[in-house]
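Support case: user asked for a sample of complex input and structure output to validate their parser. Sending the pair below.
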Amino acid sequence: MIAGLGLLVGIIIGLMLQPEVPLWLEPYLPIAVVAALDAVFGALRAFLDGIFDDKVFVVSFVSNVLIAALIVYLGDKLGVGGQLSTGVIVVLGIRIFSNVAAIRRHIFHA
Amino acid sequence: MRDGTPDELPPKVHMPLLDYITSTSLDADYAQAAERPEEQQPKQVRPGLAALVVMGLFGLLVATAAIQTARNAGDESSGRDSLVNQIKARSSQLDARRARISTLRDENDSLQQLYLETTSQGRALSARLDRLGVVTGGIPVSGPGVKVVVDDAPEATSDSQRVLDSDLQKLANALWASGAEAISINGQRLNNISAIRFAGSAVTVNQVALTRPYTVLAVGDPDTMPARFVETEHGRDWLDLHAVPGLQFKMTSEESMRLPAAPARILTVRHAMEGETP
């Protein structure tokens, strides 16, 4: 409940302020969103498993976002930014799917 | 570990990568945190203030990314639209300029005509311009004249049975001598600096290679030209060529024919300058 409230507040603040993203940060924003999505679904699954932990959630969220952005940044510097982004998206995508599958089992018992 | 079975190895060693990713999709940290001794565990497993802040951050991130993407898409499409508009504007500008060029050119011609017509001197000049244009090949001409078609002898085997550059030179000279005002060979107008030459195996006129048969058009008096032709030295040469090696030669009178202007590159005067009037 409190998490849903936080999400709603965050979205509303974002829509109202419409912060200007610096140009150098722009390529890392989409990958950061995917990494954050992975952390959020992981947290939701842990919550349904009954092993949710605030600290673990915060740490996994921040580190996911930072590492994903760092990998893409490194890839850009090495000239393989596109390929590394694809790799990060594939791994995070698989994790998101399997976490969502676990969540689905919890909710629908199927 | 050396003689260990695969079961004793950590799963990331023997599992396929995708299976490993799937099986560890939940961060192990949650399980580890849950296994900590009771006294260290947080009192509640429900999300607290930290989760609220992080979820807020997540919402902010998603909203910002969405806004940014929408903004960029707008930029891209407006950029394309403005390029398309620029292309359209410039090409219509180009069309307008082209139309203006042709109207200005027409205007120039008519103004020049008008200017020359206004004075008697100008009228004389205009007439002289036309006359010189006929002689130098600067303007197309039309009128009555004779048409001469020449070709190699049937089943020619040696060069003497073929039409050579010298034969065409003789023919042109004979036609000039018999009163031609303008001559063209296969559509190439002759003037006083035209060259009729052999280049390789083809005859070139005005540096354009021609193929046989050669059709020579000469504007002049069609009643007197054939008679005067046979009186010229080169005309008689041609009658001989027709008789002995058997070159094909056919002269007909034409009521009306049209000769093009000579190409611009042989109309330019390269060395002659206008002299001082004494």
